[in-house]
Design brief:
This protein is about 50% helix and about 5% strand. The protein is mostly helical. α1 packs antiparallel against α2.
Length: about 100
């Protein structure tokens, strides 16, 4: 089981991403627009860099919903490899069966 502080930090980051998503997207669009003058684009880049770092989407860490394990994460299930194997072996994940040959 992961530390509670790791869960809390990740949840805070998710909240900040949701809060700043529209503003970040608008500023990024201005920065990437080559038809605008360089001064305007530079000003937008400075505003973007002044926003909180935890508001960036890539700061969120994928974690297992059950154990909080950050590595060996299966996006399809939202679980770590260990839990997928355990639950899949018991038949608790719909559509997943243990292969045998």
């Amino acid at each position: 089981m992961a530390k509670v502080s790791a869960f809390a930090k990740n949840n805070r980051r998710k909240a900040k991403v949701a809060k700043w998503a529209t503003k970040r997207a608008a500023l990024k669009q201005v920065v990437m627009d080559k038809s605008l003058p360089i001064e305007e684009r530079f000003a937008a880049q400075q505003k973007l860099s002044s926003l909180p770092l935890d508001g960036a989407k890539n700061r969120i860490r994928n974690r297992c919903e059950i154990t909080g394990r950050p590595r060996g994460y299966y996006r399809k299930f939202g679980l770590s490899r260990i839990i997928v194997r355990e639950y899949g072996g018991r038949g608790e994940i719909p559509g997943l069966i243990k292969s045998s040959w």
